[in-house]
Specification:
2 domains, single chain, mainly alpha, globular
């Protein structure tokens, strides 16, 4: 289980993205646009270790995240972090949780703009009728993540 800490300054920033059907180059370009002053490197050993730690249900650890977005987006992302593993909510629930019950569409937009796959668990947000809706990294991944978390 990963415990997420939201921090103001994070020198060791990381992004966790899923390549869109093998189109990892466009995802990396997106990240470079989002973080223009960052230095990028690829270290498969560190990446493998990080992925194993994140998805290992038997190993509890903490991860510091710096959330960069509008005040509203950050409030939505913080609310998503509080959704328990294996649980789901609807967009309306998130809007209520941040004290903006009429901002359902804005919440959906903030969920869509999440840049940290799995760590900010936007996959746990469903439509009001329980439908999977769209998912930035594909509905098939959303379903796999939800199934994985219920085990």
């Amino acid at each position: 289980m990963v415990r997420i800490n939201i921090v103001e300054d994070c020198r060791d920033s990381r992004n966790l993205i899923y390549g869109s059907d093998g189109n990892i180059k466009s995802e990396i370009l997106n990240i470079k646009t989002y973080w223009p002053a960052a230095n990028f490197s690829e270290d498969n050993v560190k990446i493998d270790r990080m992925i194993k730690n994140i998805f290992d249900k038997h190993n509890s650890h903490e991860l510091n995240l710096k959330l960069t977005g509008t005040e509203f987006q950050v409030s939505v992302w913080k609310a998503l972090i509080n959704i328990g593993e294996g649980s789901t909510v609807c967009y309306e629930d998130v809007a209520k949780a941040i004290g903006k019950p009429k901002a359902v569409r804005a919440v959906a937009s903030a969920v869509k703009n999440n840049k940290l796959a799995y760590l900010i668990p936007c996959h746990r947000v469903l439509s009001k009728n329980g439908g999977l809706n769209e998912y930035k990294w594909g509905v098939h991944r959303k379903l796999k993540l939800l199934t994985y978390e219920k085990k």
